[in-house]
Amino acid sequence: MEIVNAAVGKIVEQITEWLMRSMGLQIGYLVRYKENIEKLEEEIEKLDGEQRRVQRRVNEARNDGEIIEDDVWRWLTKVYGMKEEVDKFLGDQVQEQKRCFIFSSRYRVSKEAKKKTDVVIKLKDDGNFERIAHYETFDSRALIFNKIMEALQDNSVNLIGVYGIGGVGKTAMVVEVGKQVEKDGVFHDVVMAVVSQNVNVKEIQRKLADRLNLQLKGESEDGRAAELWNRLNNGKQNLVILDDVWEELNLKAVGIPVTAGIKGCCKVVLTSRNQGVFQKMKVQNNFPLGVLSQEESWNLFKKMVGNSVDNPKIQNYAVDVCKECGGLPFAILAVAAALKGKDEHEWADALKQLRDSMLKNIEGVESTVYSSLELSYNHLPFEDAKWCFLLCCLFREDAEISIDDLVRYGMGLRVIQNVDTLEEARNRVHKLVGTLKTRCLLLEGSIDKNKVKMHDVIRDVGISIAKDKEAFLVKHGVDLKEWPEKDVYQRCRVISLRYENIDEYPDELECSELNTLVLECRNASTIASDAFFNGTRELKVLDLRCMLFRSLPSSLSNLSNLRMLCLRECKLEDVSMLKDLKNLEMLSFRGSNIMRLAPEIRHLTRLRLLDLQSCDYLQVIPPNVISSLYRLEELYIPPWFNGWEVEATNIERSRQEVLCDFKN
Predict the structure, then answer these.
(1) Would you say 626 and 632 are in contact if contact means Cβ atoms under 8 Å apart?
(2) Which of 253, 288, 323 finishes a domain?
(3) Number of helices and strands (H, E) in the chain?
């Protein structure tokens, strides 16, 4: 009997201990409610940081034409889902607790927060990927890859060319060649620069020098070329990769030493859409890069879309959609991203759109390629995402496009959805840019995370879409000998002309529907006629760059609908007439030569943004100007500026401090 009592006592003791621990745990959820919520917020912020780091590596790999690993995509999908789930939880449940304190409800929320925190921590730890992506090898490319490698070993060959239509994978090929020879130790230095359609020798020199850790001291192209030549002609084998060459390039003028048969000279690998460029440059070995075979295209398409293509309801559509991509890797990746996870109705509609699109006369791009890329645009989930994409077409080819410029254009045109402030608009545009990146329609900027780039084929297609759907006129180049014919621009709603020289402007720009005008002239020119803007009274966005104005055209004061005015890097004297632009909301003098902010600016009481960054000659901001701009949300001034006139009121100084502390 004593043994039984002892056993029962032991059992009761264990049950009691378990109950006490359980009760303590339950009570702990109530006691540690605030601690659990704060811990969840802390861990989700860490997860967000890890997600950004992984996404950055993904963007870099994808920009190089590599295929992202499946486990990376799965992890990113889980992270996006978890972040949304936690945001909703913190927004709904926690806010409810602040309004109404109920023990049972607080216990449940605290317990759920602890559970979600554990999941977030594990998800963050799972994001430590050793490998993000891989270069996809294709049988049709292996032979060319091997021939390029052989040519690089041949002392009689110093210039090698890879050519094909835009988006076929030339860049991905030469990037992989560079990685391979660097791994094998064949060359001492391997450096790469993008040349693009409008050749800028100084920019090419800068990119090469950056990758060589060389500080160029010369101001002239010749001086910089000599420095680069000496660095590359150092008795060691060096490889220079020049991507996207559109016309004959004088390598000597850039500073690249190439002499066949001489050990220690550079070898150069070029890519171009035009084989004729290589003939002019006397390239010894040319390698054509064609589209993928049907089998290779399908394998790549399946990898991007995932297992959904095995669904019998989708598979037939998927096979035909893939065929419509024309074997172009970039098109395959873009269309696959647009259709991933969609149902059979969207696949059927996509196939019809691809087959029914009008033929587009884009040099070097087949009609099937255009319709493939147009589909990615049509499948964008938001109208303002479409506008964000089209606005990127207003910039030069291979430009690093500032997200701030997109914000200002979008706010001026009122095409950004559901935003009231500039900060809200900037957040929205970052979201839209992220969407465009995931759809392969935008690329990560080279250095600045607040800038993006467009693949040149995507840009060509975008310009064509913008012309058809929104009456865009985009012409960028070196010299504009004559202004476009009147019947070309008269019905346009958006015009972007960016040139080195603009010889002559019309006396009056008759374009009654125009809402956006972008003019850039690298060699400062001037609009002489005061009547120039008389026929553009619907203008909402006006961007004038690198221009010369002794006084602004008087017709500018008639633009009563103008919301955004940019006078970036302009040479200005008298800007007092800007006071008449009563509806102006954004005004930029960035990089201009103004010495004193015009006192008349204080009359622009609707102004929300004033940009004076890089105004190196700015000496004075008159009193009571900034304080009069009572709607001002953002003020950008040079960090060294202290030229506030002594008469400035305390309100003026206080407003300057509040606005500038978080903007500089």
Answers:
(1) yes
(2) 288
(3) 22, 21
Residue-wise pLDDT for 176-222, tens only, equals: 899 898 888 888 889 998 887 778 888 888 888 888 888 888 888 88
Tokens encoding 558: 């008639």
| pLDDT at 477 (0 to 100) | 73
Rounded CA gap, 534 and 462, in Å?
30
23 within domain boundaries: no
DSSP state at residue 137: P
| Chain mean position to CA 199 | 21
Query: What six digits make up the tokens of 486?
Result: 């009147």
pLDDT confidence tier of residue 235, bands split at 50, 70 and 90: confident
Query: What is the CATH number for 373?
Result: 1.10.8
Q: What does residue 486 show for φ and ψ, rounded to 5 degrees?
A: -60, -40
Q: Are strands 494-499 and 516-525 parallel, antiparallel or unpaired?
A: parallel
∠ CA 242-244-245, rounded to 5°: 75
d(CA 21, CA 574): 79
The pairing of strands 634-636 and 609-611 is parallel
Block residue for tokens 């080195």: 500
Counting the structural domains of the chain, the total is 6
Residues 545 and 600 in one domain: no
CA dihedral over 72, 77, 78, 84, signed as positive or negative: positive
Domain that holds residue 361: 294-379
**Secondary structure of 142-202 in HEC code, one letter for each residue:** HHHHHHHHHHHHCCCCCEEEEECCCCCCHHHHHHHHHHHHHHHCCCCEEEEEEEECCCCHH
N residues, the chain? 664
Distance, in Å, from the CA atom of 426 to the CA atom of 408, rounded to the nearest integer, reads 9
Please say whether the beta carbons of 408 and 543 come within 8 A: no
CATH number for the domain spanning 408: value is 1.10.10
Q: Cα-flanking dihedrals φ and ψ of residue 8, to 5°?
A: -65, -40
**Domain finish residue from 347, 379, 411:** 379
Helix (H, G, I), strand (E, B) or coil at 322: helix
pLDDT tens digits, one per residue of 460-516: 788 889 998 999 998 887 566 678 888 888 899 999 998 877 778 889 999 999 999
Same domain, 147 and 80: no
Beta bridge partners of 549: 572
Q: CB 329: neighbour CB atoms within 10 A? A: 23
Lookup result for tokens 């917020």: 41
On whether the CB atoms of residues 195 and 245 are closer than 8 A, the answer is: yes
Amino acid at 555: S
User: What are the DSSP calls for 35-48, one per residue?
Assistant: HHHHHHHHHHHHHH
How many CB atoms sit inside 10 A of residue 395's CB? 23
